[in-house]
Design goal:
This protein is mainly beta.
Length: 248
């Protein structure tokens, strides 16, 4: 019989993540793409005074190691430049079943061209309720900045709630920087179930008024397992998108 380790969830939520969960969440889930399948998560985030253009392709080559490699270009009053390059690996120690829970480990690095890089790791955990109609995700981790040799704790707590067969409400709060935590909420909709998803969110920092508010819209493409023609087509999209991201 599956039991929900609620105490573990609470402890992880309170443990003071530089992570990227399944769009549009920043709190990561303890799930991976299917074995020998790939996905592309791409979105535009509009901040106060700048816009970020993200592309994060990921593949699960072995069945239990999801590798993500992508990045972002940021455009502001001074022009556009590559500001983030992300490389991450995630594995699971327990997979998520209906009414059950899962836990994993993610390790990654973010390079900021011209501004050093950061190393991070975190433990994602996910909990399923009401026959997969509600999910709770928690992250607890550390982030190390190589420029100033500082290390800080990171955390995140998020929920997914089914509004219909294809539409989900997401809400989360997370701490990745110094100061007060951030929050965001939005919707996710499957145009093609488990293959093509669109989403939109609004977010801010607690007590920040408009200064750090953002709006994002995104799309997520997933291939079937087995590295078939669909995977090859997604791979071509990834190659073109990331090439444009880096070299444009």
């Amino acid at each position: 019989m599956n039991r929900h380790p609620l105490l573990l969830a609470v402890m992880m939520a309170l443990t003071p993540m530089n992570s990227h969960g399944a769009r549009p969440m920043l709190t990561d889930d303890a799930r991976t793409v299917d074995a020998k399948a790939c996905q592309v998560e791409s979105w535009v985030r509009s901040n106060q005074g700048s816009k970020e253009y993200w592309a994060l392709p990921a593949c699960n080559f072995t069945g239990n190691l999801e590798v993500t490699f992508g990045g972002a270009r940021t455009a502001d009053a001074e022009g556009a430049s590559l500001t983030d390059v992300v490389l991450q690996g995630k594995t699971l120690f327990r997979t998520l079943e209906p009414g059950g829970w899962s836990v994993g480990l993610a390790i990654g690095a973010i390079r900021h061209p011209g501004n050093g890089h950061e190393l991070y790791s975190y433990v994602p955990a996910s909990f399923s309720y009401l026959n997969d109609k509600v999910f709770l995700h928690t992250n607890a981790g550390v982030l190390h900045n190589t420029v100033n040799s500082s290390t800080r704790a990171t955390w995140g707590v998020g929920t997914e709630t089914a509004l219909g067969e294809r539409t989900w409400l997401i809400a989360e709060t997370f701490q990745q920087k110094e100061g007060r935590p951030f929050f965001q909420a939005g919707v996710r909709h499957w145009i093609v179930p488990n293959r093509v998803q669109i989403d939109a969110t609004l977010g801010n920092r607690f007590g920040s008024h408009r200064n750090e508010r953002w709006f994002s819209i995104g799309v997520r493409l997933l291939s079937p397992g087995g590295f078939n023609r669909s995977t090859q087509r997604i791979g071509e999209i990834v190659r073109r998108a990331f090439g444009s991201l880096v070299f444009s």
